[in-house]
Design a protein that fits this description.
This protein has nine helices and no strands. It is mostly helical.
Length: about 190
């Protein structure tokens, strides 16, 4: 199902094609705060988050856009998220027990079939579609837990506080959700 971009997003994308500098300034004024919050949620450092957003805007200014963008907000959020993760890896913040973001990716990666095994090799697009479908099927509580951990990189303690449950409850739900996702991905 193809979603329509908002009028403003269409205008911004057209501006990116016509006048990148003005478009970047407008994107920064429209989405800058949201992007800094997203980056800061991963990096836990406002200065690094600001630098991350600036790097993303520079990359957006200097690179070709994909031909199909379903949501400018989601596209920008994904860029910031990926850039923030690169920052984490670059900074080597992996201490004993690991950074929350790195640990959450390691947890989720256990669900994805290993391409080396030759079993159920799926493309990145197929994997993305399957995970999106999985998330849409979750109850609201499970969706908050899953997205909190694997999209927003929140700690188990933060999620527990958010939903008003114990850390043990969140840990068990995450284990159950990963098992369900793993079974789904194995089926293809």
């Amino acid at each position: 199902m193809k979603t329509e971009l908002s009028k403003e997003d269409n205008q911004l994308l057209q501006m990116l094609q016509d006048n990148r500098e003005a478009a970047i300034q407008r994107i920064h004024s429209c989405y800058g705060k949201y992007l800094r919050l997203a980056a800061n949620g991963i990096l836990r450092n406002e200065q690094d988050a600001e630098e991350c957003v600036n790097d993303v805007l520079l990359r957006l200014w200097s690179s070709e856009l994909p031909s199909e963008i379903e949501s400018l907000t989601a596209y920008l959020a994904k860029m910031v998220r990926n850039q923030a993760i690169m920052y984490l890896r670059k900074r080597g913040r992996q201490k004993r027990g690991g950074d929350v973001t790195i640990v959450s990716y390691e947890e989720l990666s256990e669900c994805i079939p290993d391409p080396e095994s030759g079993n159920n090799v799926v493309s990145q697009d197929d994997l993305t579609m399957q995970i999106r479908a999985f998330v849409k099927e979750l109850s609201e509580l499970d969706r908050v837990i899953f997205m909190g951990r694997y999209w927003l990189s929140r700690s188990i303690a933060e999620i527990a506080v958010q939903i008003g449950k114990s850390e043990g409850f969140v840990t068990k739900r995450l284990l159950s959700l990963r098992e369900r996702l793993k079974r789904r991905l194995k089926k293809g």
